[in-house]
Task: structure prediction
Amino acid sequence: MDNPAHRRLPSWSLPLPKLNRAQPPLGFIPPRYKPWIVQACYVALPLILRLRLRPWLPAGIWPVTCTNPEVLAQGFHQFQAGKIRLLLAFRHSQVDDPICLSYLFSRLVPRAARQQGFRLQRPLHSFFMYDRGMPLWAGRWLGWFFAAIGGIPVHRGRRLDLKALKAVREQIMTAPLPVTIAPEGATNGHGEVISDLEPGTAQLAFWAVEDLQKAGRPEQVLLLPVGLRYIYPRPDWAALNRLLAQLEADCGLAVQSFSDPAAIAPEAYYPRLLGLGQHLLSRLEQFYQRFYGLPPAPPAPDPASPEAATPDPSADLGQRLSHLLDGALAVGERFFALPSTGSLVTRCRRLEEAGWSYIYREDIADLDQLSPFDRGLADWVAAAATLQMQHMRLAESFVAVSGHYVRDKPSFERFAETTLILFDLVERVKGTRVPKRPQLGTRQAVIRLGEPININDRWSDYAQSRRSAKAAVARLTHDIQTALEDLIEAGEETVTP
Result:
């Protein structure tokens, strides 16, 4: 039955939908940019960075630094003078990243502009693309808020989200601000590992050149790579020790808490983290083998063979994890009758869209007009799809986990990132819908800007034929990936003690 009270409320104020029940289709949320909301947020930004205002937002970030903000200051200067259209391709590893970019826009770039002798029109901000699924788990208010600050939602799993593509192309052409895109498509939780980029950012850049030429406009299209990573200037080993102890207890393992965590060498934490990873992996392997028929992972190379003269537990862990994730995705793919082709990320997106099609029913005009029996069937399949999507969520959390990330460089940052990924897994299996991630100390956000890429200089290669266009998109995607990787590596050199 329809609830009359709900009809009187704006959609963003309603409670989160129950995903085990059929829902109306997910509508497109058009951007409705309101500069005063951006300005109000910028006033509160230092507080937002330091404090956790939402359970899913860790925050605890200070300071936010940028080694070369003058690059973006010049970009905004040219943009506001009508000489260019500007796209920003930023490295997106954590949910906090947009807040840090807002600090760059609102504080660091205006300061750099003044130092160079010019002023920029305020507020400095950008339109941006975001995953349409975010308001489903973070709260419907988020869809309203993102629309007010220039957000454009996109269905990540759809081959072509035509409404999103049309909207972002329009904003690149006409918006009073640049457009920011995360070319990885999703966060991976690793500060020093960039996932393979999706080609959409490069394609949008070329479409922007095409659209401007069709409109007879002279602006150049520039794409600016933006590197962003986090460091812990004062690592809180006691907090990491508590988190490891909590995970050990949740997993039924003996708690190996250190009495003086700060005095322990970082390498001493690795056996605990490795033990946790091996235990969780073993339990998941047993689960999928017993209930879903997952075959055992192929045996690791014989330690006595020349190929494996020295046993490497982390290499075995990575091989087993890859086998497990492939099997977990295959469970959902069998349910939705999907192919098991493409990368893990591609398969995750495909499964997500299939699950949403079972929950958000575009094939039913009005759910409230269904008979109770038919509504029950719709809820039944929605509940089944919700459960099947859990296999995808498991794989999604581990797409960048290699098994040797911490071993190669046992820094506090890598310990923290990997332990928090395990925390997310445990909380998800426990049934926590929106886990409240522990804070492991104050982080410093380190931003570094790359050299702007002039897309017009590449247009002639793109415009020759469909084959050449595809090749040009692939080259640009590769160049963006290389630029972001170089920026992350260079950002490690900039640390505020």
